[in-house]
Batch of 2 targets.
Target 1
Amino acid sequence: MAAQRTRGATASLAQAQAEAPELWAVSDFLLSMVESLWACSGNGSGFKMDAALKAQQELEKVEQQIAQMESIAGASTDSHKQLEELRQRVEALRKQIYAHLNAWEKTELARHPQRPNTLEYIERVFTDWSEIHGDRGFSDDPAIVCGMARFHRQEVMIVGHQKARDTKQKVYRNFGMPNPEGYRKALRAMKIAEKFGRPVFTFVDTPGAYPGLGAEERGQAEAIAHNLREMARLRVPVITTITGEGGSGGALAIAVADRVLMMENAIYSVISPEGCASIMWRDASKKELAAQALRITAPDLIQLGCVDATVPEPEGGAHTDQEAAAALLDASLQKHLAELQQLPVSELVASRYNKFRNMAQFFSVES
Amino acid sequence: MAWFKRQSGELDTSGEKKVRTEGLWVKCAGCRQIIWKKDLEDNLNVCPKCEKHFRIDARTRLSQLLDDNQYEVDDQDIASTDPLKFVDLKPYASRLKQAQSDTGLKDAVLNVRGKLNGRPVIVSAMEYSFIGGSMGAVVGEAITRAVERAASCRTPIVIVSASGGARMMEGVISLMQLAKISAALAKLDDTKVPYISVLTDPTTGGVTASYAMLGDLNIAEPGALIGFAGPRVIEQTIRQKLPQGFQRSEFLLEHGMLDAVVPRKQLKPYISRALDFMLAAA
Ligand SMILES: [Zn+2]
């Protein structure tokens, strides 16, 4: 019924500016409905998630209405004031909804099909990108991209998992799941950076290292292990950003860094919530419980001391505004690179060691 | 009354090779023959008929590797605090308690110092029966300490792996142990103190993807399951049956991922010979 009223109201939008107060009433009514829908949605995780999605959709409708009213409100200061109030309510509600996103909803956000991927960040944050390919042993793995670039005129090396949007590209990128040669290419690129004294930026966005026949034959475990050891003693600054999914060893293999940053809606986990649910609960549908229990969101990781800082995202997530997301990332990277470049190399490597040495020490000591 | 204990069907299907502690006889999962338990034990828990290597616990392993079964235990002062307060079908805290009382260990690894053919060595032996030998913060810390001890005392280290990988109930905390241990191994590598990695059945997941594959030599017992992903996960991903012998020691050797497959009886002499190569005066 509300929707019908809205359509009727918007159709008559052009009729007169004087109708603006009435439109305001419609939007106000709709917004109240969204607010109460949200308030009553309870705490059951599944239901809350549906409610969050529904509430977001409704909010978008209300926003469109507000924009339309803006255009017809004209010079009336009263109307503008009312519209501003509405907008503030929309904003507050959106904040509330996002604050309540639970770990599973964050997982869905981290995997959002419209979330910017590594090449999209490279395009917006860096210049003069020149990709380098191949592990010199077996092949070139498109699930990891490596290359030279400039970051605010500085020469840097970039390594990142690469996901894609359309089906053909997704298959080509293997859904961002590298084979061993991807990790070997990554290390080769990092060694080039080390040789020429250039900082390394890595971007993590993978469900995990690929669990396939060939991957096992060619030593997936060895490739990851090797990267962990070599990254720990790389003699140039390394900054990792978990941009989407940080899937276990397949993520860590390019994430042993001086600074590990995590985007606000990214996740970082030892196993996917689905995988954990099917093993520990023997029921993959318990993924929401598993996601919560595993503590995989950015605030969790900060609290556990496993990442150094969070990179804020635009309201609603990085997918709502790629430019804004890239700008926020850029600012974080600049800040952390500047800090790291203050340190002499020996101190840099020593403090990287100490960071990981003292990380995740959760045990009691008995005498 | 049966004069031998039959292996339960459940153990057979999962490919387990546990030695039954009760009964005088065991059935070998490899050749299906009935073996007198004492014969099996006298043969280092290797089937005298088909050479199948049964799984052994950490203490048995140490008794086979170290001179006169003499060693000093380190790092048994640390225990998990259940950092995530993890509860699935059963609370992790109660799983821990159960495993501790079953094994007499604080967690899934036993760090010791002893001698191997007269030469001082540090050994970390993993205990598979402690929550699948999984690695959480305690295993991570213990192995890191052993590696650091090896570096500071300039004593060679042998790590015997038997693990399903990272311990899920400690979430990302267990993941970070991979980085911690690998970083410690980078330092050890710089000191040129030898590290021999022994992979036993099974060694998978985060343990393979960190220290188990980072030895100066990576050697495995025959027939051990070794891999990154578990066989079931791979089957589900590629939607086909895995070839016979896939992810077994011999498969890895063939693909260039191991330095050697060494039968249990040869393990101590092999390690001793390798340490001679690495350490004996020229
Ligand atoms: Zn047999």
Target 2
Amino acid sequence: MRMSYREALRLALREALQNDARVFLMGEDVGRYGGSYAVSKGLLEEFGPERIRDTPLSELGFVGAGVGAALGGLRPIVEVMTVNFSLLALDQIVNSAALLRHMSGGQCSVPLVLRMATGAGRQLGAQHSHSLENWYAHIPGIRVLAPATVADARGMLAPALADPDPVVIFEHAQLYNLEDELPDDWRCDIARAAVRRAGAQASVFAYGGCLPKALQAAEELAAQGVEVEVVDLRVLRPLDIDTVAASVRRTHRAVVVDEGWRSGSLAAELIARIVETCFYELDAPPARVCSEEVPIPYAKHLEEAALPQVPKIVAAVKELLNV
Amino acid sequence: MTRTRKPRASAERPLELRLLADMLRIRRMEEKCAELYGAGRIRGFLHLYIGEEACATGAMHALAADDNVVATYREHGHALLRGVGMDAIMAEMFGKAAGCSRGRGGSMHLFDVARRFYGGNAIVGGGLPLAVGLALADRLQGVRRVTLCVFGEGAMAEGAFHESINLAALWQLPVLFCCENNLYAMGTALARSESQTDLCAKAASYRVATFRADGMDVRAVFDTVSRAVRQVREGGGPAFVELQTYRFRAHSMFDPDLYRDKAEIEEWKQRGPIHSLSAQLKAEGRLDEEAFLALDAEAEAEVAAAVAFAEQAPWEPVADLLKDVHTPAGAAAGGTP
Ligand SMILES: Cc1ncc(C[n+]2csc(CCOP(=O)(O)OP(=O)(O)O)c2C)c(N)n1
Ligand SMILES: [Mg+2]
């Protein structure tokens, strides 16, 4: 069946709400408004205001309440409108959700799922264009997922809910309208990265909103006779280094595409892991395509220049291959 | 355009006519923005203030030129009335380098620090702690100045509101917290977001003076905010003012506006601030249709000039992308004297 990324997310939410009475969705404008990105549209009518729970503008409060509800035996799905506003809730995510199990000596778990939109590309200005997945991927105690395909939008929620510990799911705002065929087997292993395209000459690693760009770059490179393997990281914590290393062993070259800023980026972490695990497999120093070190500007041409783009990925691969 | 009598120069007009003229300027500018958004000239989020003009107009007229203003993403009107040129605002919306934030900010981040307009902030509640800090700086430097902080009623659920008003009250800082209560935070109605819907009662729990005005009546806003500003300026500590208003348009250009009754919107439109004031002034014999049309034409002409300015303004070269991330060596650090 063909559907959008948004519809796939909604289908997964509906299924979770149907299958488990402990599951509820909470966040700003998830109900009456229909979800700020229309993901939860129609769910209020189906499940009622107790389970599709609109909250006031209180990110710290309602994320913390989600942590408490998870401790209390429920399976909350908390939607923070965007990663930008999750900064107001960071204390509860980092100091409560991620730590409670450890600090209690393993006495409790926090089975919380946090969903948030992320990323730039719509000229929303610096405060609405962050890509801070790496901040969350830095924290022991939480799992971080980045669905980049319709199948993963459909398949990641159930295993995330089944995880006894907090899971943060990043939905790139540029992906909501992405349409694709939902494969018969959309189930997702949230421990593994996924190879999205085969190719022998280099490995391109990407996640979230950069995956379609990486695939587009691979397409353009193929037209020029360069075949690259594209790996969707999709699990940002813990990184699936086995899949990454296996790819590097096949191609001996690595390019990492990351919408985060270069300094301290996930790309930096991935390259460190590649160097640690398969240094002697490499035929060239690993390369990366990240956002420029500037707050994301409003003006369209400057925003585009600040973000990873297909031509930059193509150029990075060609430079690595000396072609 | 119809031939109109040349209006009197704006500075010599009586207050009411200046208020009317400024509401018209905001209205016409924003109507044009909506049109330009449809045409793809303006992008990103655009939050229109249409219907709420009496709030910014009354409040900004109640301030002295030297006061500080901190606003939200729905700040086009406030910026304009603090003296940011319409051409610089329009160029900012276009993303041009001639914009008041050099095209880096967009509609939600209009800045003019020389005029003490400390932005457009797109994080709900994000401006409140800044306002407290600006007022603290004034206090510590012995400057008698008021910091007016504008926010929506939705922001009153954020921790930032509680922390900021507590600090301001505790330290008796000259902040005027100005809540534009338009009854909705995106799709969430006030009663679905606040356990205490009497916003003045909520603020009063921090032991600050509270004021309330009909935010559709620009004269009431002006009078009330003027009283509040006077009290703050005279050292009475912070104050809180609630302006009861309504936005006629959707939250932003992305909002299908499914959560409000059409009848409710229509009812509020009957109380439109421009229409109300001009009707009152006509009834009082202080305005006729011809004079109204002249003011309107003046606003339209200003908008047309601003759009023309923004259209022809150049794009910033991509080579400048990394500019203004850090202060260049040798440049003066930080705020305005
Ligand atoms: C911290 C934060 N959370 C959520 C948002 C998304 N958002 C933008 S405006 C808005 C509604 C704010 O309502 P209110 O404060 O009443 O101001 P109004 O838009 O009505 O002027 C929301 C939820 C945001 N920008 N910042
Ligand atoms: Mg509001």
